Amino acid sequence: MRSTSSTNRTRTTVRTAAVVAAGALALSLTACGGSDNKSDSGKSSTPSESTGTVTLPKLNGQSLEVAAVWTGAEQKNFKTVLAEFEKRTGAKVTFVPAQDPIINFLGSKIAGGQPPDIAMLPQPGAIKQAVDKKWAKPLGPEALAELQKNYSQGWQDIGKVGGKQYGVYYKAANKSLIWYNAKVFANAGAKEPKTWQELLTTAQTVYDSGVTPFSIAGADGWPLTDWFENVYLSQAGPEKYDELAQHKIKWTDPSVKEALTTLAQIWGKKAYIAGGQNGALQTEFPASVTQTFTGGDQPKSAMVYEGDFVQVNIGETKAKVGTDAKVFPFPTVGSTAPVVSGGDAAVILKDSKAAQALATFLASPDAATIQAKLGGYLSPNKNVPDSAYPNAVQRTIAKSLIAAGDDFRFDMSDQAPQSFGGTPGKGEWKDLQDFLKNPTDIAGTQAQLEKDAAAAYASGS
């Protein structure tokens, strides 16, 4: 997952039926209710400021650094959350912009003796690496209690390593969505598709109306892995998905061939992609979104695939979510619709009263509610009120995430070692970019994916 970050995981057991139900709920755009869920007040033995639902200690004069691969509106909105923590505690918090892969960035900071107090890690694999390198510190009792009160067991488990809790999944993503320009669909007479075959029909209908169907962010490798994961999960099923995520089956497996063949039905049609394959490989994620919703009823593309966080980028255009910019679930390729999740976890690198307090705050509904109101954000915290989300689309997506409980599949590439699943210009990101460039070379793509995966899993990094 990544938005400007990526997203993440270890693994949690999943059941498909609940996932499918959640997927259907996620995109019923008429749902817009809000509940006033509230968590119980937290307890702390230290002198504290008790505004909100969580109790925080006084930290006057103390300073913290928080590192994340977040830019633009995402970074700005998170800084608003940090400002509230400063107001309540008296601490001073500095946001440190990190580069991908964040594990390498942290390694250089730690080698220089200047690690941040907390890092927002976008992969369970990255959390494990931080623990293995003895960088990460376990959550203390206050943060742990807040996490257990507000999160389902599944979201707690993906932040654990060796049975100990290291991560607070502050941010989540529903990565099984396709956003579309409503004016283009209306002009073309196109309908929201429910199956992959219907998606191809819709694409042709849009193309016949004079608009290129898809915008693909090929310059960033991570959206390509998300495309693959949705097709693979729906087509091969959750058991195979888990096996491939853990490299218990090889990338040369026939199920991978089938998924790549399916993807090529879109990736292999130059006329279906804004700028063709070469143009897509030069299109970064933010531009893939904005070019779909600028240009009136003649934009560069009609549809763009990615998660709920797309709304941040839509907000940079004049399009209104729910009116000009609409969304439907990623279509069913096999027997069930896919629901792929991602997220970013807060992990403590310098154990202190201040760092533990910030982790506690980030595990609370208070912090998540602040960012939810600003838009383009989704929290797995079950005690964030639905009414905090600023529009009907976002409220519905958030409700579906909470309704799924422990029944979700985490982003496959985020579960892999970083060198395979989370590094620009390497591993799966690069291999799928090469496949987008030449979608006829399915066997060659499988062979390269397996070679890179085998090396990464063998080294564990």
UniProtKB/TrEMBL annotation:
Record's signal peptide: 1-33
PROSITE patterns, per the entry: PROKAR_LIPOPROTEIN (PS51257)
Highest rank taxon of the organism: Bacteria
Alphabetized Pfam families for the sequence: SBP_bac_8 (PF13416)
Keyword tags: Signal, Transport
InterPro entries registered for this protein in UniProt: Bact_solute-bd_prot1, SBP
UniProt-annotated stretches for the region Disordered: 34-56
Family note: Belongs to the bacterial solute-binding protein 1 family.
Protein name: ABC transporter substrate-binding protein
Organism phylogeny: Bacteria, Bacillati, Actinomycetota, Actinomycetes, Kitasatosporales
